[in-house]
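ARCHIVE CARD
CATEGORY: sequence design from structure
SOURCE FIELD: tokenized fold
FIELD CONTENT:
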């Protein structure tokens, strides 16, 4: 069992950002049990761009995602967590670029949240 020399987890910097002065008012984490968790993975543009009840001028944006119509839709699905893709810079595959396409979902992150 030779260690993988490419793995830098043991020496990679790790941190936690703590903002203890933020006023959360009455907001609290939902604490949904894992067995009851339903995760919905979506791309903001893909989820909102063609929705007929979202105003045209905000379709495909985070503002559209927060629109009451979209919130109601997501609630009706019964999801408990929304995973958005991509929310950080990502690299598209050269093969797709040669075809004039891009990695729309962003599964190839670059410097995640840097």
């Amino acid at each position: 069992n030779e260690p993988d020399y490419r793995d830098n987890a043991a020496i990679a910097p790790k941190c936690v950002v703590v903002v203890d002065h933020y006023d959360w008012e009455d907001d609290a984490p939902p604490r949904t049990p894992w067995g009851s968790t339903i995760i919905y993975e979506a791309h903001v543009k893909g989820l909102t761009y063609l929705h007929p009840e979202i105003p045209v001028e905000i379709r495909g944006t985070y503002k559209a995602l927060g629109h009451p119509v979209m919130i109601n839709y997501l609630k009706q699905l019964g999801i408990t967590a929304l995973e958005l893709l991509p929310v950080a810079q990502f690299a598209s595959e050269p093969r797709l670029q040669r075809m004039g396409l891009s990695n729309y979902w962003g599964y190839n992150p670059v410097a995640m949240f840097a």
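CARD ANNOTATION: The two ends are 33 Å apart (CA to CA). The mean pLDDT is 87.
SHELF: design records, drawer C
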